[in-house]
Amino acid sequence: MLSVGLLCYKSSVKPKDRLQNHIMSSLTSNLKSHIQSDIKKNLKNKLKIVIGDKNLSSWSMRPWLVLKASGLPFREEQILLDRPSTKARLAKVSPSGRVPVLYWCDVAIWDSLAISELIAELAPDAELWPGDAVDRAVARSYVAEMHSGFSALRDQLSMTLSLRMTIAHLSTATISDIHRILHLWREALGKSKGPFLFGKFGIVDAFYAPVVFRFLSYGIAIKDRKILRYMEFVQRHPAVVEWVNGAQAEKPWIERF
Length: 257
Ligand SMILES: N[C@@H](CCC(=O)N[C@@H](CS)C(=O)NCC(=O)O)C(=O)O
Prior knowledge:
Blueprint: H1 15-25, H2 29-46, E1 47-51, H3 58-70, E2 75-78, H4 86-93, E3 101-104, E4 107-109, H5 112-122, H6 133-148, H7 151-156, H8 172-192, H9 203-217, H10 225-236, H11 238-249
Parallel strand pairs: 1-2
Antiparallel strand pairs: 1-3, 3-4
Helix pairs in contact: 3-5, 3-9, 3-11, 6-9
The structure holds glutathione.
């Protein structure tokens, strides 16, 4: 069910919204679902995500996967990175000069985590966070650690989705990041029993999905069968498949080198 309070993007509930909420609460469930499906249709005009290259932009991939998994209709616009026009184009649409940016009507939300949180609020039925409060706090810790950490892994194994190679040398810091991620995955899968980190595909999986492709791209040898199975599930998730297809349709990334 869509949150009717989020019909309007302003933070304070305006009188019109209060009236809408009152009307909605007094409707029969049939009529409510009719109105909600109408709201959903209109969302396509209200929700737009601006992303970078699907091959390269791991920060864009994360909230894009969350949006897809939410089932909310949205539009997307792409600004290719590392081109002569990139900085100027980014400056026009993004308050931080970076992608991703989500537009909710004409309000920009310019960070992958802030975008994911909004999507979770707009689509509570998609259960993008675990239902249990303690699990949800742990899931948020996973996401926060990815959002602010793993810089060695990000630098040395930068995401290039279509790349397949074997890396000759991994720095000690990168090895330590890899071990930490494998430990986190093992812990979560041990508790949830899979198929995803907290059971159902959610924001945590979207945030770690680029890592799956970094491991594949650079031939990082994973032996743990449960982790290999998890990586398979991530690759087979329909949202991930759609993103990868988009990446493959992009101009060959190799041209950039
Ligand atoms: N903390 C931001 C990071 C966003 C970010 O660094 N995006 C990169 C692309 S993956 C970017 O826009 N770089 C600007 C450029 O390449 O010119 C987020 O979570 O969304």
